[in-house]
């Protein structure tokens, strides 16, 4: 049966599944977070594919499509591997008193300081251990060229702050960028692993129009929305500044528990 033969809700869900399948195929279905990382992307694409009218309210379409997509993400999956059990980034809810167990952010050039017109996008997901001693993460970056490094920086939105946690090419409190041009064509998972925030502190910051932000542990800064993920590109000497050559940062996203899906 063609998708045009379904009623409005059915056709919306049909298109949403098609877009989700394309995203998963692009990343590889063995990635435990690929379905979820591009969940919103598939939603938006499906909404543009179809005329969301047909007498249906927008919220009704979203509810039906959400239920169907969640079912599709959780059905027909093989038994989880050790990796998937260790890093089920969205699966484990916070326990009582811990409302900031997971952190999520979408990275774009619009979030950079200053903003840029990069077509690249990214997604970063962090999962804090029960005792706060370790943080599992996965960083996805797509449609971006010449990636040489990525980090967690300290600072509020619209402020360029210092690096405190390296995510790529090394993981930890220190690292070294790749020699330009780095990863020339990046599409998919850029980095994943675990870092340990103990002993890592964001310095006191003086932010224009905000004032002084006191020094604090990096995990406290993340919880307070005062840290961000930044992916840097560098094409090497002799290349004009622009997408693929923005050493100060090409795509960025503020980390905050309110950004959780």
What key attributes describe this structure?
7-stranded antiparallel β-sheet, 6 helices, Immunoglobulin-like, two-stranded antiparallel sheet, 261 residues, disordered N terminus
In one word, what is the shape? Answer: globular
**First CA to last CA: what distance?**
33 Å
Number of continuous helical runs? 6
The succession of helices and strands, N to C, reads HHHHHEEEEEEEEEHEE
Give the fraction of residues assigned to helices. 10-25%
Question: CATH topology of the largest domain, what is it called?
Answer: Immunoglobulin-like
* Radius of gyration based on Cα positions: 20 Å
Main pleated-sheet profile: 7 strands, antiparallel
| Class by alpha and beta content | alpha+beta
- Strand content is 25-35%
* Number of beta strands: 11
Q: Based on the structure given, which CATH architecture of the largest domain is correct? A: Sandwich
For the record, the CATH class of the largest domain is: Mainly Beta
Domain module tally:
2
Stretches with pLDDT under 50, minimum 5 residues: 1-14, 17-99
> Please, what is the average pLDDT?
75
Explain what you see.
With 261 residues, the protein is of the alpha+beta class. It contains 6 helices and 11 strands. It has 2 domains: 3-74, no CATH class; 102-259, Immunoglobulin-like (Sandwich), CATH 2.60.40. Strands 1, 2, 3, 4, 5, 10 and 11 form a 7-stranded antiparallel beta sheet that branches. It has a two-stranded antiparallel sheet with strand order 6-9. The chain is globular, with a radius of gyration of 20 Å. The two termini are 33 Å apart.
């Amino acid at each position: 049966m063609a998708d045009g033969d379904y009623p409005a809700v059915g056709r919306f869900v049909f298109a949403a599944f098609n877009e989700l399948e394309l995203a998963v195929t692009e990343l590889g279905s063995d990635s435990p977070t690929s379905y979820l990382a591009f969940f919103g992307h598939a939603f938006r694409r499906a909404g543009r594919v179809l005329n969301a009218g047909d007498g249906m309210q927008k919220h009704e379409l979203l509810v039906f499509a959400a239920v169907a997509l969640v079912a599709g993400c959780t059905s027909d999956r093989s038994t989880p591997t050790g990796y998937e059990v260790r890093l089920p980034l969205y699966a484990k809810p916070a326990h009582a008193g811990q409302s900031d167990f997971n952190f999520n952010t979408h990275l774009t050039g619009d979030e950079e300081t200053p903003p840029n017109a990069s077509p690249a996008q990214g997604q970063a997901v962090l999962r804090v251990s029960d005792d706060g001693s370790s943080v599992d993460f996965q960083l996805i970056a797509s449609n971006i060229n010449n990636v040489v490094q990525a980090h967690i920086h300290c600072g509020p939105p619209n402020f360029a702050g210092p690096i405190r946690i390296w995510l790529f090419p090394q993981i930890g409190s220190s690292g070294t960028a790749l020699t330009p041009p780095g990863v020339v064509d990046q599409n998919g998972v850029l980095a994943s692993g675990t870092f340990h925030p103990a002993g890592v502190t964001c310095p006191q910051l003086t932010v224009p129009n905000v004032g002084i932000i006191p020094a604090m542990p990096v995990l406290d800064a993340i919880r307070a929305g005062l840290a961000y993920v930044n992916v840097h590109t560098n094409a090497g000497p002799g290349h004009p500044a622009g997408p693929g050559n923005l050493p100060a940062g090409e795509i960025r996203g503020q980390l905050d528990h309110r950004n959780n899906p």
